[in-house]
Amino acid sequence: MIFMDGVLNVLKPPGLTSHDVVVYLRRKLHTKKIGHAGTLDPQAVGVLPLGVGKATRLLEFMLAADKEYWAELTFGITTDTQDAWGRVLRTSNCADLSLEEIKSKLGQFMGEIKQTPPDYSAVKVNGIPLYKRSRLGLETKVSPRTVFVYDFKIIKYKPPRLIFKIHCSKGTYIRTICHDLGESLGVGAHLSFLLRTRVGGFSIAESILPEKIGLLKEKALLPLEIGVENLKKLILTENELVKIRHGQKVFLPESTPLAKNIAIFNHQGELEAIAEILSQEQKVILKPKKVLKRD
What we know:
The two termini are 17 Å apart. The protein has 295 residues and is of the alpha+beta class. The strands form four sheets. Strands 1, 2, 3, 4, 7, 10, 11, 12 and 13 form a nine-stranded mixed beta sheet that branches. A five-stranded mixed beta sheet has the order 14-16-17-18-15, covered by helices on one side. A hairpin with a 2-residue loop joins strand 10 and strand 11. It is built from seven helices and 18 strands.
């Protein structure tokens, strides 16, 4: 077995689940320690960050990154999965729907919004994903979630299809944006194409198809440090790092801002740990949460 540590910026093709990509690359790279940072629907295309080796410990921080998509919405057809691959529930005439009417509703989908995850999604209720619960016929009540849409820009409208670009927080369902926009206009809608162009610092311009990664092997790996680009950073002295490596706290100046997650680096620019800055007994301390044992 080859020991690899790093991050992969995968260009996921349509027709594969995110787990399919992980299984394929585990086989090609001869390592079991690979995980993905956020599910991308099987028919969707685009950026799928993967952690390999020690980078699997950074997946939760990669998951927290904001995302950008290009999407195509089709008005007039509502499906049970909110996308083009579900069962059609309702059709309606949307020939007279104008661009001005659509624009008048976009404000409802900007900033902080509430979303109810679709029935066919990976969100778990009582340990069972919603899509499995739906297939089993189990009734499930799902609470709305708060997400944030930073930007929503219409690129082209040629009825019944709308192409748009969206920048949003983690956990935002673009399928649900499409469905809810169609409902607000009274004509229904579904997601007919989805391309994820960015996850945090991972861009589609630098993404690589799984087959090519299988050929490049370790040459396709990006440094561990890429996985924490969205976190604040702190460089420590060697004496302070010795304490962190042994799971010990480090005292910081009282003026240091508190932080739930902060990336700890050495003077060589290498990631050493993820830590938390908190106040304890009127002192500010740095407490390690995840220590990466560098070779």
